[in-house]
Structure formats: C-alpha cells, structure tokens
Amino acid sequence: xxxxxxxxxxxxxxxxxxxxxxxxxxxxxxxxxxxxxxxxxxxxxxxxxxxxxxxxxxxxxxxxxxxxxxxxxxxxxxxxxxxxxxxxxxxxxxxxxxxxxxxxxxxxxxxxxxxxxxx
Length: 119
Hints:
By secondary structure, the protein is mainly alpha-helical. The chain has one domain. The chain contains six helices and no strands. The radius of gyration is 19 Å and the shape is elongated.
C-alpha cells in the first residue's frame, strides 16, 4: 500500500508539510489571539493587530533561537514561518470576524445572580 510508505509521489512545493508545522500554526495562532484579546491592544484597531503579529513573530524567533541550545533540537526557518503565519491568520480572523470573536468571548458559566440581574 502506498499509504504505508514514506516515499509517496507528491508535488514538490518547496517545503515539507507536516503535522509539526500545523501544530506550530495553531499554537502560535492561539497565542496571538490571547494577546489580541487584551483590551488595550484590541482597541488599538489595525495598529493593535500589527503589534500583536510583531510580538508573536518576535517571540517565535526567540523560541527558535532558544531551541539551538537544546541538544537534538534545531532552528528551522519553516517553523518560524508557520508560527508567524498562524499569528497573522488568527489575529485577522479574530479582529474582522465578529461572530468568531463573540463565540470566543461567550461566558458559559455565569453565576445565577448575574443572570437574574440582566433579565
């Protein structure tokens, strides 16, 4: 079976896609979303979005650099690109798509007293 082989016929896109890169994209997207949720940054509009992307990308670069001191770990430019792309996608989606933002801000556990006060 071809699925059991590590040498599958696939187009060469110039990079090696793996679940590792997907994990980088998702984790740093989550980190960027957490940063953008800070009211002072979010209220800054597009400037806040750019600051969030820059901070997250800088943190990702330092994280890759830190890995160079760990035996058996290597600095990979592809990881940093996946981290930065995750930050870009997540911040733009969070900032522009109000339904997604409202879903993330939904509080599922409210004290009953606050529900009664709002009714």
